[in-house]
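Quick note —
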Amino acid sequence: MSAPKLNIDRSALEQLLLSRFFFAPSFGIYDGVKGLYDYGPTGTALQQNIINLWRQHFVIEEDMLEVDCSIITPSKVLETSGHVAKFADWMCRDTGNNEVRRADHLVEEVLAARLVSDELARKLAATSIDGQAPAKATGKKSKKAPAPTKLDDAVANEYRGILAKIDNYDGDGLGELIVKHDIRNPETGNSVSPPVAFNLMFQTSIGPAGTSKGFLRPETAQGQFMNFARLLEFNNQKMPFASAMVGRSFRNEISPRSGLLRVREFTMAEIEHYVDPTNKDHSRFDEVAHIKLPLLTGPMQLAEKTEPAVMTIGDAVSQGVIDNKTLGYFMGRIYLFLTAIGIKTDLLRFRQHMSNEMAHYACDCWDAEIYTSYGWIECVGCADRSAYDLRVHSASTKKKLCVREHLAEPLVYEKLVCEPNNKLFGPKLKRAAKPVQEHLESLSAEELTEVKAALAKDGKATVTLAGTAVDGEYEITSDMLTIENQTKVENTREYTPNVIEPSFGIGRILYALIEHSYSVRAEDEQRGVLSFNAPMAPFKCLILPLSGCASFKTFLQDSARSLRKVGVPARIDDAASVSIGRRYARNDELGTPFAITVDFTTVQDNTVTLRERDSTKQVRGPLDDIVELVKNLVSGSATWDDALAKFELVETTGETDA
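Predicted structure written out below.
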């Protein structure tokens, strides 16, 4: 897999997106708030098309159970899940102006800039050696622009190694990098403070008293876990199964930037696939086993490698690169989804999380990363969350979040069991009796063996309670209980499912898709084009008159009505004061794949022309036939080549009047 290439003028694209109101900063007339964006009609339609295909690809095809859960989440839920303690990023402050920066992004930005400067210095040096004068810079040079600086080879290699595993550094590691490499705020030149952890959740209070603390959810997953028992019952106790949800999540980003790529409020689409921990195979694995994925593994990153290895999913699972078949299956489905919406395969990779960046709940995790003008961006996470969430919530609430499976043959085994002497156990421990008994019953076989050994040796043992109403240390004696092996016969097996979680950042996917779809006309670089495929295009068909002739109006309305009746979103652009070429051009910027033009011939014989956006070629045919063709083109049951073969090709004089 060669180095990714994406040659776009980001400033021109951003201007297009703003002028065509794909999205814009929220509360703009009040100067806006960083990290908050509003979607306009075009961006909203594009986002909905992505979500619609996601639902079809996952929820419908995989027969998932879709839910919609509360945004406001009680503090206790997120304390139990570990988010209150661990859902944090490392931040540092500019010692001069107190500006806050995310530490890993700051290190990454500064070292990457130094490597770019080094590359330019080496090119200039090579040009000078060849005896050629350096090329003159174009445009006005900034007075503050530093001269390119060549790095020692060892330093440059060290920087590349740091960047290859930047996600694996904790706060102390980032602090050491900042000091060692003199990392400063590039906008001010000031030094920065040592990194400190910053929790990313938005806190709120529930109710008027202000005594019930809550948070805006940082993910949709917890709501799904809260309803696991109900979902299992709805699914008639059958395993495996999956729940799914699309909704808003909130993260108080330290320094939001890069447009939609790092925001404080965003749409997520998450799947929680519940699976037997002893059998993580998937019945449809063979359907994706042949798919080749570019995989950047954890060991490769630690070895400072940046070039992924291309492997089939089948080989990756059999060799232990991907932990299990269910995880591999969903990675394959993620790949198929992203490529179906229009993400370029050569700008897509899967990167495995390293140990220090692994979420507190995950035992293995891969990110589908998409290359953009900002570099590689995590857009989908696919994690094996093990049984972490269900277990901690079950322990906290004393509610069973498990599966009971009927066994074909009874299971016979020996188990160490604690039997209290009720005449002594309760009277001696009083209110602590039940919590102590529950604590003993929750111990593993190894831990209970240690208690038994202490009772046999010393005649007593100490039990420490935490997280109960009677926390503290309690002494139990050998006459208060017995701990012995007993033969157990079970006709049912009880287990806590593991969870495989694909998690999609819809806004990031949307922005990456926009960049991958953007180009300019070869004959006119001022004419931008968004080449969305038809299912993704916000508007499928443009309808426009050749001129402002009053006789065209009925045909315009009939065309739009016929298209909308068969489910094809269509827009009329009847601004006859603007040339037809310019109207084509501004709808190319919206990504509209097809355009029907009503002209004087239409009035005579009820035929219209149909233009295809990418080739700009046009065909002519009866209005009803063209409407049917557009419907088939949008649904994918026909191609533009089919249209060229069936309908009359129209000679055009070009669109240079745009």
